[in-house]
Input
Amino acid sequence: MMNKNYQNIEDKRDDGSVWINDLGRKRESGPKLLDSRYANFGDGTKSVHAGQYDDPQTGALGTPIFQCSTFFLNSTSYEAIKEGRGRDEMIYSRYGNPSQWSVQEKLSSLENAESSIVFTSGMAAISSTLLAILDKGSHVVSSRDIYGGTYNFLYEDLDRFNMSVTFTSPTDIKEIEAAINENTKVLYFEALTNPLLKIAPIKELVALGKKYNLRVIIDNTFLTPYNVKMLDLGVDLVVNSATKYLNGHSDLIGGTVSGSRKLVDRIWPQLLKNGGSMDPHACFLLERSLKTFALRMKAHNSNALALATYLEKHPKIKRVYYPGLKSHDQHELAKEQLKGKNSGMISFEIEGGDKNAHQLLKNLKLPKEATSLGGVESLISLPHNTSQASLTKEQQKTIGINDGLIRLSVGVEDIEDLILDFNQSIFNIFNN
Output
């Protein structure tokens, strides 16, 4: 049975096993329940159909929740374990579960990836991915503008593994290249930064990766594969906080990583050790939510552009940060890299500083004052007391967190209602 998975095997050890260099088994995409990626279809069709498992016994339409911790073992299971193919068989739900496989196939289809893994959180995805790809003594080049949890992991935890990090500007490719050392293994950046929406130059990062033989890992949470398919641009691995746009309903914590089967297979054992495997019910919620992913992202993008345009014209708004506006510092890169899909995120500064920013949030009726982003409802917050609260005021200003800065995740409400709501809120601040 074992020989069917190998080719040209000549050199065997005394116990009959083969040397690792002689292994001829090809990695298949997946793992998967069915061959149902809908690869030649659009994102709307993929969102609905890819990865879905319709139960053949009952005829139930849609992937059931496989709420079990373990599975019957058989000769196929034991053979897979012996050959190191445990990820391709149902053995134990921490290793793999039909609910996981279903949503992972949908994600792989949307990302144009060979393989994907889902995690219990975005940070579980990020930490497991980096620990799997790095080794002792490795160095990472990353961005000063990355998410606080990622920054803390890189700055505080890598040192415990005798690893190091250098933080650079996410937009200055010369500074990024200058930070590369002999022991650099990974370039880790966010495609669109929080909260100032700086755009990482992906093609240039990929070129650096090839020049210096580095892995390029991109956090694409703010853009998602609907706006930019990072793997198509040559990125090695793409991670997402599924808590945000992928789920889109503010009722789930999760994370994802997608890439080649070879690299994702390296991350899977780290997932097992870290214990961040997504549970079946959360997988069901994510797979269900992804069915409306393309519809939601289209609405987020459209609403954000309309609202950003309105805010930029308002006399009481000092500045708007949005890649779709000509005033954005990287608008030309946005046109090339985002191709009109500019995200549902906006940041802007209001006259009167933080005092008026707080009052704006209180006056609004539709956007909810809350952390996180990517929900169907608009979510609004002030970076100075949320995402960047750990920085001093001086540090905040150094990276561009000015008085009166507001971050807005634009939902899918009717855009006319959102504009009217912002109009009344701003009017009441300056006319009362």
